[in-house]
Write a structure and sequence with these properties.
- The chain is α/β, with parallel strands linked by helices.
- The protein contains ten helices and nine strands.
- The strands form two sheets. The chain has a six-stranded mixed β-sheet, with helices on both faces.
- Strand 1 and strand 2 form a beta hairpin.
- Helix 4 packs across helix 5.
- The longest helix is centred in the last third of the chain and has 18 residues.
- The protein is globular, with a radius of gyration of 20 Å.
- The protein starts with 5 loop residues before the first strand and ends in a 28-residue tail after the last helix.
- 39% of the residues are buried.
Amino acid sequence: MAYEQITTRIEDGVMVLTMNRPDRLNAFTGTMMTEMISAFDEADANDDVRAIVVTGAGRAFCAGADLGAGDKTFDYKDGDAEKIHRDGGGLLTLRIYELKKPIIAAVNGPAVGIGATMTLPMDIRMCSTEARFGFVFTRRGIVPEACSSWFLPRAVGVNQALDWTLSGRIFPADEALQGRLVKAVHKPDELLPAAMAAAREIAANTSAISVTLTRHMMWRLLGADHPMAAHKIDSRGVQFTGKSPDAREGVTSFLEKRAPKFPGKVTKDMPGFFPWWTNPTFE
């Protein structure tokens, strides 16, 4: 599919999604949001895509919301005082949260506002030495968006999250690493290869079904109030996967000392209990 503000390509089982408004530092728009969500839909529907890498064109990752409308940028008047405007950043991060494929952020430059918060539901975050981060909402007279008040404390702890969000200050890559916002910092020309290597590691060596289940087990259980919730889904998951062709291939390929060729497809072979979080009677 042709896009206006992003590009996508698939290489070695990895979809590379690039925000592509370099002249505007990849500032976020409604069009970009819609196109990114569409690309994630495509990735989930394509069994040839095993992982996703997100990066930015030019010298920025994403400089935040496009402020071209000036002081009316965040004024969502619609004539109905009781109607709540759904935050576009939140629609994007909720779609990322629902992904069946693992997703890696390769933050190549400034990531401010939605440019920072869109990375929070991504599974792995890496950045360039040129990256700068900012949860700048208090400095713009608004509040954190894109579900970041849920994601950020879980990623870095509430004290670190409050330090960055209350001040709204811009901070460098080494602070992001120290604060556990990113996994690693790379030289600019080494960032995308490192992200691709991490994505290929998943694509080449793992069961797509196991990866999808594992991703959602980790995210969905963040709010569980007792390990019994994990025990229930662990038990279902092991029972289903343990007798699957993927499990047989995983064991056989290990014993035969060869690379695995897992046959399972996320589009058609997921267990009947998936997605379990939508079933109120799940036991």
